[in-house]
Amino acid sequence: MRTEQVDVAVVGGGPAGLAAALSAKESGAEHVLLIERGERMGGILNQCIHDGFGTKLMGEAFTGPEYAQIFINRLTNTGVNVKLDTMVMDISSDRELVICSSDGLIRVKAGAIVLCTGCRERTRGAIRIPGTRPAGVFTAGVVQEYMNIRNLSVGRKVVILGSGDIGLIMARRLTLEGVEVECVAEILPYPSGLARNIVQCLEDFEIPLYLSTTVVDIHGIDRVEGITLAKIGPRGGIVRGTKRFVKCDTLLLSVGLIPENELAKKAGIKLSPVTAGPIVDDHFQTSIPGIFCGGNALQVHDLVDYASMESEKAGRSAAFFAGAGKLPSPSIKVLPGQGIRYVIPHEVSGNEPVDFSMRVKSPEADRYIVFKQGEKVIRRMRQIELAPAAMIRMRVRSDRFQRSLDSLTVEVAD
Length: 414
Ligand SMILES: Cc1cc2nc3c(=O)[nH]c(=O)nc-3n(C[C@H](O)[C@H](O)[C@H](O)COP(=O)(O)OP(=O)(O)OC[C@H]3O[C@@H](n4cnc5c(N)ncnc54)[C@H](O)[C@@H]3O)c2cc1C
Prior knowledge:
The protein is of the alpha/beta class. 20% of the residues lie in helices and 35% in strands.
């Protein structure tokens, strides 16, 4: 097998990988290699033809492909080596990658690696919906690719399970293409998608949203002929007498995303049981020195801007590591407290300002997000509305950290 040597190898050419490769190069890494298994860069954004990308980073709402193109243009002529149609098959803890392309297998020895492999959708198997196995059951991302990239229609009458952003966006997209969207069902008592998408994708088109409701049966032999919906009680069981048949020829599943973490697992990187992405410090360095992670491979983002921002930092840190061989060690563990599902980064050094991202466990109104070390509050911010669907970002200045203490708790409080 041929061997190549690079300073920084970035795995994945979506918005996170593009940002990481650019910043690694701009931060002084000489040989930067960006590896993408698809035939073009841009990742999931290529199929997201709706607008709303870039509002935080660029103050303007672009479509997915437009947003990706801005980064692709910036990358052109920087000297970053891009390999398309190339799959990273394996990585090891000593920063060696095995990649596969039309040139065959190549071993790449990297000074540092940034994992930006995105995430994948949960399927019918993952949520175990009973019933027959007819054609017409799709995940939302697959329908999005069929409609927006291949110009294929998937059905005439659709039920959508899951009120996450992708499901909501597809409800609108299908309606605009003349497909009847019967309803969106959501197992939780509150929507999983952003409020703006509930309004713009459902309410504006009078598509009903049924909360605390799920699909408990799929009917049809060759093709979906209908599904059974039922109400779900507070303890997760079906509420007696609430089952009802809904005629449809397509069931679209938008039931969650899971970080693509196979490569991380192969390298022996520690994963968070909550996010399923790697445990990282404030340089986005994983538990294996010199391997970094950003974008949806780290945590599922609702806004691409934040995926780009954190990956920019991961790329910068990777360039630094490739040059210096190490980064300052984190000494303060970050712990999710009352009401917080997770916080990233999981540990910090306290020497630099840190942009934390986090999600709450349940919807709340007029509360505070509080950062505490011991009994001392080091940062506090009022939140008019808190929703699990909306990632919260908060910056803590370096002079606020108490470096003598080894932990920090983030909680929702009054
Ligand atoms: C349907 C949908 C709608 C969205 N709408 C919005 C919106 O309106 N506004 C907004 O701001 N954000 C939106 N987002 C979120 C945003 O698109 C994501 O946060 C962003 O795309 C994440 O970027 P990423 O680079 O981490 O992942 P991806 O875009 O998924 O890119 C990952 C890349 O890694 C490659 N890859 C994976 N494994 C390997 C391997 N082993 N070897 C080589 N390559 C590999 C994949 O092929 C892929 O190209 C939406 C997301 C989805 C799915």
